[in-house]
Structures are given as C-alpha cells and as structure tokens.
C-alpha cells in the first residue's frame, strides 16, 4: 500500500540518506560516501519564520551558521545580508518569502543542501511501500542537484541554495579584510537576481505552462534580472559592492548576451510598444508590474492593457491585441509586424 501519512517521516529520511555524496576525506584521504541529510547539517544554513507582524525572525541555524553569527566582527555583515535578501524578495508581489538560506561551503555541500531542498519540496509525492524502496529512490535528487551546481544559486520552494563560490564571497564581505572584485559582486548579483525573478513568476493554478506562454516566462526572467542596474542593486542589497564602473561594464556585456536570444529581443520590443525602455533603470518597476504581478496566463492581457494605455488606443482593441500578443511566438519580426498594425490605429483623443 502507498506510504500515506503514517510512515512519511521515516520515508523522507530514508530517501534523503540514500542520496550519497563522495565527500573528500581529510589530509588527502579517499572520498567517503556520506548521506546528504548528514552533510547538509554541516553547511552554513539559516531557517526563518514570519512573526505575527510579518517580520522575519531567525528560527534555526546549523552549527556552522551559529558559529559565524557569534563572531562580533561578522555579525553586522551577516545581518545586512539576511535583511537585504529578505527585503528584495518580499518586495515582489505574491512572493512567499525566503524560508531558508543555504550556503554551501564546498560542492558536496551544495549537492547535499539541494538534495534536502528537493526532499522538502516533494515530500507529499512519496509513494514507496517500505524503507527499502525509499532508499533505492534517493539518488535521483543528488544527481539533479549536481547538474544544478553551475547555476551558482537555485531558488525553489522557500529555499535559496547558494554554491560555494557565493558563500566565499559573502564571508569575504563580512570579514571586510579585502575588497571584493567586480567579478565576485557581479556573479553573486547575477545569479541571485535571476533566481529571485524565477521564484516569483506566478503560474496559473493547477495548470501546466502552455507553449504560447513559455517564452513569456523564460524571457521575463532573462530580461528583468539583467535589467540595467539590477544586478548591482541586488548585490548591494546583500551588502556586496565593488567599483561601479567596472561592475557596470560587466553588467552591460552580460545584458548584451541576454539580448542575443531572439525571444528576449521580442519581449524588449513588446515592452517598447508599452513605452517601457529596457535600458532605463527607472522603467523596470513598470515592466515588473506588467509581467510579474499577474499569473502567467494573464501576461498577454496585462501587456495589452499597458500598450493601449501608452499609445492611447481605443479600449475595445484589448481582446484583439491580447490575441495578437499570444500569437507572437517569441519572434522579433512578429513584434515588428504588430507595431506596423498598431501604427495604423488612430489614437483616441484625450478628454477635455
């Protein structure tokens, strides 16, 4: 019979323990297989809760995290990072909040942390009949986590998992002994900004993403996280700063790479129809409102409303325009065609 609820805790634990990691031994000794659940407890991990007034409170931490927090030299920097990351995420409409910040100290630690996040996110899907089946199934989580390591940061459920390079950057900033390089700040800001956008992309309830919406979801993440000035602002909120000119240069080059993707070019062109300039930092909040403050299936209608308002078009064009936006397929040329059609529609005269 399925696991039901009676044996669920034991099955979850078995599943996590079966995700084995080859952790390097001390002094050059051969790697030792260690369960993910055990090695994750050795990482710098923080767990938060929300009080009655909506404020974030530290609920628990691993021994490694507690040791850092007790160091008076590091405490102010830690506080700034934790407070800043919460503020960034909570400012997004519909965001559930950061429930855990998991900072891996090495690659095996990242795999361990992500394996445990995946266990937490999917615990309701366990259908194993006994502990032996659960142990046999756990390796898939570790394999997925290992593939995600190059991303540098992953946000899923309520957990933000950081790779060891970002953990090292944060520790370096907290210690304050050496200045951060622009590359360190850029990489942290880029990866975290991307994951914050990914975490708050609202999906339609109980439905899969249809092909005509998929490009909107993917390009929204790409365009918003790489928006002019956003990567530096994300890093600064977490307490990380470097030479502004060098950082802006790195951001510009990366943004150029993002705009080589045809679907991203198409979204930038659509935003331009609504009077939004992706090169203007002050326009980002309006773009976020049109793209992220509604569920994914409502994005075309949201953009149609923004375009009609910006171009003073008749309101009865909303349904037609929504349909056209659905048919774009992420192709820049199709957006150019839509622009030509819009330019043939005379704007309505403002009252008065």
Can you tag this structure with a few keywords?
five-stranded mixed sheet; 2 domains; 55% helix; single chain; two-stranded antiparallel ribbon
Q: How would you portray this structure in words?
A:
- The protein is 55% helix and 9% strand.
- By secondary structure, it is an alpha+beta fold.
- Helix 4 (75-90) packs across helix 8, helix 5 crosses helix 7 and helix 13 packs parallel to helix 17.
- It is globular and about 75 Å long.
Task: State the distance separating the first and last CA atoms.
Answer: 72 Å
Q: Give the amount of beta strand, in percent.
A: 5-15%
Order of helices and strands: HEEHEEHHEHHHEEHHHHHHHHHH
Strand order in the largest sheet:
4-3-5-7-6
* Biggest sheet layout: 5 strands, mixed
* Whole-number mean pLDDT: 86
**Could you say how many structural domains there are in total?**
2
SS-based structural class?
alpha+beta
Count up the helices: 17
Strand count: 7
């Amino acid at each position: 019979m399925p696991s039901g609820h009676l044996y669920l805790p034991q099955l979850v634990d078995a599943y996590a323990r079966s995700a084995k990691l080859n952790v390097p031994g001390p002094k050059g000794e051969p790697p030792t297989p260690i369960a993910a659940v055990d090695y994750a407890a050795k990482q710098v991990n923080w767990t938060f809760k929300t009080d009655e007034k909506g404020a974030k409170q530290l609920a628990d931490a691993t021994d490694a995290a507690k040791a850092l927090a007790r160091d008076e030299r590091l405490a102010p920097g830690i506080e700034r990072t934790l407070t800043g990351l919460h503020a960034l995420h909570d400012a997004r409409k519909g965001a559930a909040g950061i429930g855990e910040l998991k900072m891996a100290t090495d690659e095996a630690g990242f795999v361990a942390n992500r394996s445990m996040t995946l266990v937490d996110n999917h615990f309701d899907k366990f259908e194993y009949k006994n502990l032996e089946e659960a142990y046999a199934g756990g390796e898939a989580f570790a394999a997925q986590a290992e593939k995600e390591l190059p991303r540098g940061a992953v946000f899923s459920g309520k957990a933000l998992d950081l790779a060891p390079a970002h953990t090292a950057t944060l520790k370096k900033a907290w210690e304050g002994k050496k200045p951060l390089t622009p590359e360190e700040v850029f990489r942290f800001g880029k990866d975290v900004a991307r994951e914050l956008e990914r975490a708050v992309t609202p999906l339609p309830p109980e439905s899969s993403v249809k092909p005509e919406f998929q490009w909107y979801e993917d390009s929204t993440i790409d365009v918003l996280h790489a928006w002019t000035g956003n990567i530096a602002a994300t890093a600064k909120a977490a307490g990380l700063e470097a030479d502004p000119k060098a950082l802006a240069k790195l951001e510009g080059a990366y943004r150029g790479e993002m705009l080589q993707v045809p679907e991203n070019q198409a979204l930038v062109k659509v935003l331009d129809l609504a009077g939004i300039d992706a090169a203007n930092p002050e326009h980002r909040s309006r773009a976020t409102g049109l793209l992220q403050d509604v569920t994914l299936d409502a994005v075309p209608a949201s953009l149609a409303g923004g375009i009609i308002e910006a171009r003073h078009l008749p309101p009865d064009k909303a349904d037609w325009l929504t349909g056209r936006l659905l048919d774009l397929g992420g192709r820049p040329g199709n957006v150019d065609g839509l622009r030509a059609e819009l330019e043939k529609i005379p704007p309505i005269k403002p009252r008065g």
